[in-house]
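User: Some background: our group keeps a shared notebook of sequences we're curious about, and every so often someone picks one and asks for a predicted structure to add to the entry. Today it's my turn. The entry only has the sequence so far, pasted here. Could you supply the structure so I can complete it?
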Amino acid sequence: MNLEYFIAKRLITGSGHKISISAPIIKIAISAIALGIIMMLIAIATGVGLKHKIRDKVTAFNGHIQIYNYDNNNSEVSVVPVDLNQDFYPEFKSVDGVAHVQAVASKAGFIRTEETFEGIIAKGVGPNYNWNAFEEFLVEGKLPDYSNGLNDDVLISSIMANRLRLHLGDSFFAFFIKDGDPSKTPNQRKFNIVGVYDSGFEELDGLYLFIDIRHIQRMNKWRTDQVGNFEVFLDDFEDIDEKSKEIHGRTISTLDTRTVEDKYYNIFEWISLFDFNIALIIGIMIIVGGINMITALLVLILERTQMIGILKAMGTSNWSVRKIFLYNAAYLIGIGLLWGNAIAISIIWIQHEFRLFKFPNPQEYYIEYIPVHIDFYSVLLLNIGVLLLCLLMLLLPSYIVTKITPVKAIKFE
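Assistant: Of course. Here's the predicted structure to add to the notebook entry:
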């Protein structure tokens, strides 16, 4: 039988501690642990959720990795075509972890209406384009279908439509520079709006118009088996650097690769700061909870001074006595963690389902509501980490037990 655990359990389950002088201090310590774990879990859920949501929106427009011709010089528009007949298209079988590959092309132009005009980048997409993310972004109409013959249907952003005073079902003329020479008469195309989207990314929404890729192929005088570049989607974003190198090694020498992190360096540099904020909040909450537990432990030791003296007089070692109070402290920490987890997970679930909390300035965070994301392993590791760190912080104050002598302790009142 574990004697220290047995004594600690009797102290915990006994009714005496409920009316002792340490009762309010113990309640404060438990509340501090519970509040701390609530703050930490919410910080992780909101920080990670916002990171995932922002990067998912950016990758929806670009894929995780782009494969393009070296001569394109990282341009936003397609300059030199790439042959569609590649070993990696339509399936990248030689690299594990690739979910989808799609062929696209882009061309700069502008839209002119009777009242105004707006510069655009027309993104040409084909029948295998991944519309999954845009199903969530769609606010009016439907997504265009380019699986049959050439058509004039387009998907336009709500920002662009408002600027041009266009609505769902309207038609408009778009003009594109011919052969990269502004002095030549531009190519003219008439398009019909079948869908309106809003991703929350004003920089991207105000730029991209989605059209049939065959329009760009005809305007650029490309063959039907020539495209601007390929966009690669991965199963796991965390593998992006590794997979980019692997994909680069599996493509021909005239093709280059670029990750979405490299293309939008500023955005991903900004969201990487979320990790620092999360770590800072976790650190502060652990220190606050630990200090409260140290206070509670010292009061418990003071309150049980006579018991300590009796145990020592019976030959119990200092470490055994310290273990009694550490077991007691672990129980109190566990109670705080239990309540904290229950409350935090409930708040996170409610926000995930009902999106009650929203950003006062959604344009700065590219999303209207506060997204949350958390997984079982993050919760488990955080709880284990908090428990172990708090117990480590309690090792030093528990050393006060070694300074208590049996004679003085038994006489202590």
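Suggested note for the entry: The chain has a mean pLDDT of 90. The longest helix spans residues 23-62.
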